[in-house]
Design goal:
Blueprint lengths: L4 E5 L4 H12 L3 E6 L11 H11 L6 E5 L5 H11 L3 E4 L6 H6 L1 H21 L7 E7 L22 H20 L2 E7 L2 E2 L8 H14 L5 E3 L5 E2 L2 E2 H13 L6 E3 L5 E2 H10 L5 E4 L6 E4 L5 E5 L17 H6 L9 H26 L1
Parallel strand pairs: 1-2, 1-4, 2-3, 4-5, 5-6, 6-11, 7-10, 8-15
Antiparallel strand pairs: 9-12, 13-14, 14-15
Helix pairs in contact: 1-8, 3-5, 5-6, 7-9, 7-11
Bound molecules: NADPH dihydro-nicotinamide-adenine-dinucleotide phosphate and guanosine-5'-diphosphate-rhamnose.
């Protein structure tokens, strides 16, 4: 059988890096779009790229990186024409909800119009019948939730420029499927985290802080809304589902979630527990603090600068369609296991940082 070709936008991100690993394992020829940046932005895929460069010596290279940007349509057309991918995974996005309030227009250009450009690129290159497209849709579409738990049929009510941009991307993907018979699908993924999660998303911010506090290199952790409830899964499990969706005989949209939700407060407690610190809470609202039960030291404070102009208070997904039709296991990694994976990684990182810092003291 001919080797399949995949094009991943957002390959340097959390999901892109795990997906690239998975597709290489499955024998794909993987192409990724990277942005030009003034410093290296390929840290998450360096291991793959270096491995592949070594393999290249034996002319068996499986990963190729191309410069590109979701706001540069002619570049996307050129890439699609050159690669003629069997599968496209559109993961590139300005993906930070809070940042989208500061960069609403850029977020729309990248997340909404960028998706349109990619779909158009496939159409212009007349690859509608060959190329299958995965669109990284999100639980943020549900925003102010209209139904609990949220499933494929739950109405949308986005609460941020990010959510609104992703809503356009969702519908344009569906529209191209219905209008041109393209195999283009939405994965409505709920929050998924990992040791590769960006450091400004709440879970990673917490696991890094708990590790640095344990190591003595950070004093306190400042957080925003401690009450939000999220359905958190492990990113490595979720990228498998992206692939499964594109192997399904019919193009369909799927909710991917664990079906369990926890608060930011609980995620913090679990993370600190990994370093032997029991957190006790005192106060309410912006006055709330998290103390170390043993020493009484204040370790967590609320800083209103992390509040959002409009908040998504609660998200809980119903993954039963994916479980049934894709044979996906939504309970592969529990929240406790996820925290352990992230804390193990971040403790090592904190120790390394400390050693480097000490050598300069
Ligand atoms: P990340 O923020 O980790 O990665 C985003 C990727 O998009 C990076 O590779 C980034 O490149 C790239 N990117 C950003 N802007 C552009 C642009 N203008 N042109 C080209 N590339 C760009 O996100 P995740 O891996 O966590 O998420 C992947 C996708 O899934 C995103 O679309 C996100 O919105 C969506 N999603 C994520 C969920 C989650 O919980 N993680 C849940 C639901 C949906 P660079 O490295 O150069 O910044
Ligand atoms: P989210 O993830 O907005 O759900 O979007 P994030 O981790 O940023 O926030 C989750 C919840 O935690 C609250 N929160 C804080 N958030 C951040 N970032 N920093 C803080 O200090 C903090 N304190 C409390 C937030 O208010 C929020 O309620 C993620 C992204 O990956 C999106 O791209 C994706 O679409 C959705 O998940 C599903």
């Amino acid at each position: 059988m001919q080797q399949k070709k995949a094009l991943i936008t957002g390959i340097t991100g959390q999901d892109g890096s795990f997906l690239a690993e998975l597709l290489i394992e499955k024998g794909y020829e993987v192409h990724g779009v990277i942005r030009r940046s003034s410093s290296f932005n390929t840290e998450r895929i360096e291991h793959l790229y270096i491995d592949e460069l070594i393999r290249d010596l034996h002319s068996n290279r499986k990963i190729t990186l191309h410069y590109g940007d979701m706001t540069d349509t002619s570049n996307l057309i050129r890439l699609v024409k050159q690669i003629e991918p069997d599968e496209i995974y559109n993961l590139a996005a300005q993906s930070h909800v809070k940042v989208s309030f500061d960069l609403p227009e850029y977020t729309a250009k990248t997340d909404a119009l960028g998706t349109l450009s990619l779909l158009e690129a496939v159409r212009i290159c007349e690859l509608e019948k060959k190329t299958r497209i995965y669109q990284a849709s999100t639980s943020e579409l549900y925003g102010k939730v209209q139904e609990i738990p949220q499933k494929e049929t739950t109405p949308f009510y986005p609460r941020s420029p990010y959510g609104v941009a992703k809503m356009y991307a969702y519908w344009i993907t569906k529209n191209y499927r219905e209008s041109y018979g393209m195999y283009a699908v939405n994965g409505i993924l709920f929050n998924h985290e990992s040791e590769r999660r960006g450091e400004t998303f709440v879970t990673r911010k917490i696991t890094l802080a708990a590790s640095r506090i344990a190591e003595g290199t950070q004093d306190k952790l400042y957080l925003g809304n401690l009450d939000s409830l999220r359905d958190w899964g492990y990113a490595k499990d979720y990228v498998e589902c992206m692939w499964l969706m594109l192997q399904h005989p019919e193009p369909e949209d799927f909710v991917i979630a664990t079906g369990k939700q926890y608060s930011i407060r609980y995620f913090s407690e679990l993370s600190f527990k990994e370093v032997g610190i029991e957190i006790v809470w005192e106060g309410k609202g912006v006055e709330e603090i998290g103390k170390c039960k043993k020493t009484g030291k204040v370790l967590i404070e609320v800083d209103p600068k992390y509040f959002r102009p409009a908040e998504v208070e609660t998200l809980l997904g119903d993954p039963s369609k994916a479980n049934k039709l894709l044979g996906w296991n939504s309970s592969k990694t529990s929240i406790e296991e996820l925290v352990k994976i992230m804390m193990k990684h971040d403790l090592q990182l904190a120790k390394k940082e400390h050693t480097i810092k000490k050598s300069f003291d």
